Amino acid sequence: MSRYAETYADWQRAPENYWARAAEAVHWYKRWDRVFDSSRPPFHRWFPGGSVNSCYNALDRHVEGGRAEQLALIYDSPLTGKVERFTYRELRDLTARFAGVLRRYGLAKGDRAIIYMPAVPQAIVAMLACARLGVIHSVVFGGFAARELATRIDDCAPRLLITASCGVEPTRVIPYMPLVDEAIALARTKPERVIVLQRERLRATLNASRDVDWDEAMASAQPADCVPVASTDPLYILYTSGSTGKPKGVVRDNGGHLVALTWSMHGVYGVEPGEVFWAASDIGWVVGHSYIVYGPLFHGCTAILYEGKPVGTPDAGAFWRVIADHGVAALFTAPTSFRAIRREDPTGALLAKYDLRRFRTLFLAGERADPETVRWAEQKLRRPVIDHWWQTETGWAMAANCAGLGLLPVKHGSPTKPVPGYDIRILDDRGQELPPGREGAICVKLPLPPSSLPTLWNNDDGFVAAYLKDFPGFYKTGDAGFIDADGYLYVLARTDDVINVAGHRLSTGAIEEVLAGHPDVAECAVVGVKDALKGQVPVGFVVLNARARREEQDLVPELVQRVRDQIGPVASFKSAMVVRQLPKTRSGKILRGTMRRIADSEPWQMPATIEDASVLEGITAALKSAGYAR
Ligand code: COA
Ligand code: AMP
C-alpha cells in the first residue's frame, strides 16, 4: 500500500511543517529563523537564518556518527583498469587536506573555483573541499570544448581552476591542458592558479608561474575544518543550456539542497544509509552533483563513481558487473544507456553471468524514457524500472514514482506523479490551467521547494525572464506535456530550443552561433532529430553566402569540426546540409518545428504564416537524401 497520497496531502496542508520535519535529518550549526521567506518575491529563500556545512553533512558527520570505516566511495574505472575504495574517514581526510590546499592559495567563503575534470575521485574531493570552506564550485563537463569553458570562467570569475592532465575515452586519451590553456587565453577573467592532477595515462607539462601539481600541494597541506555557511549561501553554480548560446548559471543553495536531497534518498529512491547507490552519470551534470556526490553521502550511503560506458568497456554486461561487484541496491542512469545495452545484447544474455541479488530498483531520467526500453529493462531485470523527471534547475525529481513511499502502479511513458513539494499544472499560452488529457506548458506553482534554484548567478533579471515572466505565479519548466485523469504526468517535448542528446542537455542556439561564425555561412538553423540510440541528435541546415566557393562535401566536415572544437564532442554534431533557403514565417521566424517534424517523418501542416511554401520542398529533398524524412 503506497503512502504517496497521504504524504503529498500532508505536504499540501502545511508545507512549512513538512519541510521543517525533513530538515531534522540534517546537521545544523544554528537552526533556521524561518522555514520559508517570501518577503522579497519572486525570490524565495528556504531556511534563512540557518547555518550549515554541506561537506560536514556529507562526511564528518558520518565519521563522528559511527560510519568512519564504512565505504563512502568506490571508484570503478574499466577505462583505466582501476578500482579504488575510500572509507568515510579516508574521504574526509583527503577532503580536509585538499581544503587546506585551497586555503593556502587564499580561497575563502564566497570565492569561486571551476572544476574541469574527468570521473576521478579527486573531482569529488575537490567539490567537497570547496563546500567545506564555503567556496562555490562550478563543475564543467569534460566533453565541453575550450570556448564553453571560457564562457563559464567569464561568467563566474573563479580564482582557481582545478583540472587533470587528461580524460580517458574508449578510443582515445584527451589531453586537458591544451583546452584549459586555450580557455584561459580566451577568457577575459583569468584564474590565478590551476591545480593539475597528473594522471598516469598522460602527464601534462605545467606552467610554473600558474600551475600547481595536485600531489605536491597535497603532500604539504594542513587539513582545514568545515566553515559554517548561511543556509542561503550558494553551494555551487552549474551551467546549463537554455534557448540562447549563453549558458545559464543555475545557483544551488546549501540548506535547501541538503534538506531536499537527504529526503529524496529515502523518499524517492527508497535506499537506506549503508546501502550502495550508483548514479551512472558524470559529475559535470546535475545527476552527478546530486546523486553521485551529495545525495548518497548526505544519507550515509556508499556512492559509486564509474569511469566507463554502458557498452564497450568491455561489453554490454559492464553495468551488471558493477552492480554485482559492489552490491548496488539502486542504479540511476539515462534511458540512452539502456538503449545502448539492449542494442548490443538484445536477449540480455550477459545478465546471467552476474549475481544481482542485492539490486532492487532501476531509475531512469535525463530524457524521455521510451516505453519499449522501459519494458525491455523490466523484463530482463525483473525489478521495478522507475522513470522520473527533473532538471538542472531543481536538482532533484519533480515527478517520480516515489520508491520510499511505496510504489504506485506504473504507466509506461509517464514519470508518475508530482513529488511532494511540487504542485505541477498544465497551462495554455494564456496561463489558463488545462483539464486532464490536454497538452500544454508544464509549470510548477510557486514557490518552488527546497533545492530548486533561488536565482541565476549574478542574473536575477535573467532568472525572472527565463522562468517566471511568462506564467505569473508559476515556474516554467520549459517542457510540454499533459496530466491524465489519474493525475499521472506525461512529458512530451521541450517548448524551447533545448535538445537532449544521450541525456545531455544542449542548446541548438549555441550550435547555430558556431555555424553562423563560419565565413561561408549566411544563415543557418539547427534542429534536434530523433535518433534510435541517443534520443535526439542535432542536424544543421546552412544557407551559403554569395562569396562561398566551397562544395558541400568540403564544407560539411569543416562545420562538423567547428562545432566539435567550439562546443565539444559531446554535442554529437555529425550531420549538416546545404540548402538554398530556410523556411520562415512572414515575420522572419525560422520554422524549426516544421523542419523537425519533416525530418522525423511526423505528420505536419503547412504553417499559415509561411513566407514561401516552396522552400520546404528543398528542405524535404535535402533531408531525404541524408536519410531522414522517410
Ligand atoms: N570528455 C571528452 N570527451 C567526451 C566525454 C568527456 N568526458 N564524454 C563524452 N565525450 C565524447 C565521446 O568520446 C564522443 O566522441 P566521438 O564523437 O569522438 O565518438 C562524444 O563525446 C559523444 O559522447 P557520448 O554521448 O558518450 O556518445 P558515445 O557515442 O561515445 O556513447 C552512449 C553512446 C549511449 C554509450 C553514451 O552516450 C552514454 O553512455 N550515455 C549515457 C548518458 C549519461 O550518462 N547521461 C548523463 C545524464 S543522466
Ligand atoms: P537536465 O537539466 O540536463 O537534467 O535536463 C532536463 C530536461 O531533460 C528536462 O527539462 C526534460 O526536457 C528532460 N528530461 C529529464 N528527465 C526526463 C524524463 N524522465 N522524461 C522526459 N524528459 C526528461
Structure explained in plain terms:
The chain has 630 residues and is an alpha/beta fold. It has 2 domains: 4-308 and 388-477, 3-Layer(aba) Sandwich (Rossmann fold), CATH 3.40.50.12780; 502-625, ANL, C-terminal domain (GMP Synthetase, Chain A, domain 3). Helices cover 31% and strands 24% of the residues. The protein contains 18 helices and 31 strands. The strands form 10 sheets. Strands 5-4-17-16-18-19-20 form a 7-stranded mixed sheet, sandwiched between helices. A 5-stranded parallel sheet has the order 7-6-8-11-12, sandwiched between helices. It has a 4-stranded antiparallel sheet with strand order 23-24-25-26. Helix 3 (54-67) packs across helix 5 (121-133) and helix 6 (146-156) packs across helix 7. The longest helix is centred in the N-terminal third of the chain and has 17 residues, at 88-104. The chain is globular. The two termini are 47 Å apart. The mean pLDDT is 96.
